[in-house]
Amino acid sequence: MSSRVMVRMAPALKGRKSPLTLTQSAVQRLKELQSKSQPEEKTKTLKIGIQGKGCSGNAYTLSWVDEAKKFDEKVTQDGVTVLIDSKALLTLIGTEMDWFEGKLASQFIFNNPNVKGACGCGESFLV
């Protein structure tokens, strides 16, 4: 008795869109910040997260880390790598990170399409 086995090829996987995009000014600023680290030190990676605080309930957090945790999302663009905390990933999908430098303030700005509201000072947001 013989049996036949059919093999079906899986469809090609589509490339997925990055959960976070960086503007050229943000890329340039991150490169500047990483180049200022001491040569003998291991280069640190910027990690973006979300913390519950402020008038509207959520605020972005930025921290330098030595390595990614197990479920952190890694975003690489134009030679710069940024990590996204796994708990913040769904909130940040589709976000653009920009660098603003003005006379009174210099800061990273997040243009997040998922935000439903923000406080008057712009420090916290609601999803």
Automatic annotation (TrEMBL):
Pfam families, alphabetized: Fe-S_biosyn (PF01521)
InterPro entries, sorted: ATAP, ATAP_core_dom, Fe-S_cluster_asmbl/transfer, FeS_cluster_insertion_CS, HesB-like_dom_sf
A single GO BP: iron-sulfur cluster assembly
Domain Core: 20-123
Entry GO terms, CC: mitochondrion
A GO molecular-function annotation: 2 iron, 2 sulfur cluster binding
NCBIfam families: iron-sulfur cluster assembly accessory protein
Annotated family: Belongs to the HesB/IscA family.
Function, as annotated: Involved in the assembly of mitochondrial and cytoplasmic iron-sulfur proteins. Probably involved in the binding of an intermediate of Fe/S cluster assembly.
PANTHER family assigned: IRON-SULFUR CLUSTER ASSEMBLY 1 HOMOLOG, MITOCHONDRIAL (PTHR10072:SF41), IRON-SULFUR CLUSTER ASSEMBLY PROTEIN (PTHR10072)
Protein name listed in UniProt: Iron-sulfur assembly protein 1
